Amino acid sequence: MRYFVFFLFLFANLVLSAQTVRVLTYNIHHANPPSKPGVIDIDAIAEVINAVDADVIGIQEVDVNVPRSGTVDQAKRLAELTNTNYFFSKGIDLDNGEYGILILTKHKITGQRRYDLPMPVKSENRSLAIVDIALSNGKTISLANTHLDLKDDNKIAQAKFINDLVDGYKHPLILVGDLNASPTSVPIQLLEQKFVRNKKDNGPTFPNVNTKEEIDYILISKPSKFKWKKYKVVDASYPSDHLPLSAEIVMK
User: Fold this and answer.
1) Which of 5, 214, 217, 233 is deepest in the core (most CB within 10 A)?
2) Which residues contact 82 (CB under 8 A, 6 or more apart)?
3) Which CATH number fits domain 19-251: 3.60.10.10, 3.30.750.200, 2.40.280.10, 3.50.50.60?
């Protein structure tokens, strides 16, 4: 009986310490719906994010005070519309504004870092944003968000750079973003050395209509203890040229 009570107590602790984290990654095309050239619909992007109800969100192609999107700080505005904390990471300066990536989260951000990614071949500068997040069960996870370059040499160097960072994390690191690479490409194969990719429920995310390319990802660092609860491409073809990708991950 004593052993039964002990194992029951141990099981209860494991159940209570596990937490489901809802994750979303979304390339928003600076909130310009492809079917409406020149139109900016930040409200439609926020509606998609709110409908998914994710805990942590990685957003790519975000304008901050850029004339083409009405000189609006899209990072701040999306945080307001989704009632989340945020961290913006600039990739490039653009028309007296900034263009880059964004992390949103419902949880408290306890740390934030930005890295310029390596660029062996001249191209548009890319960055990596990482935030540390305190979950309600007292545990910490980190979310890394990026938008890899189009050129193969750069993507490979950038994947290696990200892999080198993983060893410094003792808690789970979730990597999301538009990686501009197919599942069988060298950059993804490199990342799979340090991250786990969902190969069962994955699917194409680009373009938004007649979708055929899988280039957006949610990956979990090894050797994190977790399981995929859900993993799916979100049906939202209007707001952007990419479809959002969501996951529910049980962190053990």
Assistant:
1) 217
2) 46, 49, 50, 57, 104
3) 3.60.10.10
Are 208 and 242 spatial neighbours (Cβ–Cβ below 8 Å)?
A: yes
The pLDDT tens digits of the residues spanning 169-203 come to 989 999 999 999 999 999 999 999 999 999 999 99
pLDDT at 241 > cutoff 90: yes
Nearest one of 60, 28, 44, 69 to 243, comparing CA atoms: 28
Structure tokens at 174: 């979730």
pTM value surpassing 0.90: yes
C-alpha distances in Å from residue 2, one per residue of 6, 7, 9, 11, 16: 6, 9, 11, 14, 21
CA dihedral 184, 189, 191, 192 (to 10 degrees): 100
Counting every residue written for the chain, the total comes to: 252
